[in-house]
TrEMBL record:
UniProt-recorded name of the protein: Phosphonate ABC transporter ATP-binding protein
ABC transporter domain boundaries: 7-251
Gene Ontology cellular-component annotations: plasma membrane
Annotated organism of origin: Vibrio ezurae NBRC 102218
GO molecular function terms attached to this record: ABC-type phosphonate transporter activity; ATP binding; ATP hydrolysis activity
Gene: phnC
InterPro entries: AAA+_ATPase, ABC_transporter-like_ATP-bd, ABC_transporter-like_CS, ABC_transpr_PhnC, MetN_ABC_transporter-like, P-loop_NTPase
Protein localization: Cell inner membrane
UniProt keyword annotation of Oxidoreductase present: no
Keyword terms, alphabetized: ATP-binding, Cell membrane, Membrane, Nucleotide-binding, Translocase, Transport
PROSITE patterns for this protein: ABC_TRANSPORTER_1 (PS00211), ABC_TRANSPORTER_2 (PS50893)
TM spans (from-to): none
Bilayer topology annotation: Peripheral membrane protein
Length: 275
């Protein structure tokens, strides 16, 4: 079995100007198989942090150490190689709508087969078989030949997960995967991500706005406020004082979820088809 790597962030900083400080001295580690939920108010730097890790946004200072490399210091060619090992899952799904589900999943192999082979849809047989297996794993095997624009939001997100896994990544970066989904589907997607990370021992960071959903499905929560880490601990440690430090003063004891509805949602079997 391939040994997975720990993600180490050291002093990661992104300042656009002296007055616009998106991230300041962010440091934490993510172990293999660990899913870290990244929470905080809008503008706290959650998406910037994810984008700095794979250098879609260039950090100002700091280190991102993964697979024995500091990603911040890599040349462009070496960074392209390193990005093969980093799977991204987006809120907007980022699918090619006119292509089939299978073709979208196989696009995750672009970094390995090259543009022209993918353009001609000449993927190696082993990649095709692996894609079928991934679609089976995310519950979409019967939709393999459907166009992406014929799917529901939850199904599209599952295609995005399968495409990221087609890269055979060693790290997953996930940006608001449930923001556009109904509560039931959001829980199914979070459960799927959690199970896959455990199965493949993938370290993962999920930028998520739903605190209760994060507490239910991640092993650890990192809270950002104005670009700085103000909380790093277990979901059970995320008390009213911690929430106030992250989001500001609020009556955190007030529940916004109907308990009967919540019980019904959680009890829904994972394999049930998405609406």
């Amino acid at each position: 079995m391939e040994v997975m790597s720990t993600l180490i962030l050291k002093g990661l900083t992104k300042h656009y100007s002296a007055s616009d400080k998106a991230l300041t001295d962010v440091s934490f580690t993510v172990e293999p198989g660990e899913v870290v939920g990244l929470i905080g108010p809008s503008g706290a730097g959650k998406s910037t942090l994810i984008r700095c890790i794979n250098r879609l946004t260039e950090p100002t200072n700091g280190q991102v150490i993964f697979s024995d490399k500091d990603l911040v210091q890599l040349s462009k060619s070496n960074l392209r190689q390193a990005r093969r090992e980093i799977g991204m899952i987006f809120q907007e799904y980022a699918l090619i709508e006119r292509l089939t589900v299978m073709e979208n999943v196989l696009s995750g192999r672009l970094g390995y087969v090259g543009f022209w082979r993918s353009f001609a849809r000449r993927y190696p047989e082993q990649d095709v078989q692996a894609a079928y297996a991934l679609l089976d794993r995310v519950g979409l095997l019967e939709h393999a030949n459907k166009r992406a624009d014929a799917l529901s939001g939850g199904q599209r997100q599952r295609v995005g997960i399968a495409r990221a896994l087609a890269q055979q990544p060693k790290l997953l970066l996930i940006d608001e995967p449930t923001a556009a989904l109904d509560p039931r589907t959001a829980r199914q997607i979070m459960r799927l991500i959690s199970e896959i990370c455990e199965e493949h021992q993938l370290p993962a960071i999920i930028n998520i706005h739903d605190v209760e959903l994060a507490k239910q499905f991640v092993q650890r929560i990192v809270g950002l406020q104005a670009g700085e880490v103000v909380f790093d601990g277990k979901p059970s440690e995320l008390n009213e004082d911690a929430l106030t430090k992250i989001y500001g003063q609020e009556d955190w004891s007030a529940s916004t979820t109907d308990s009967d509805e919540e019980e019904e949602i959680i009890a829904a079997p994972f394999t049930e088809a998405l609406a």
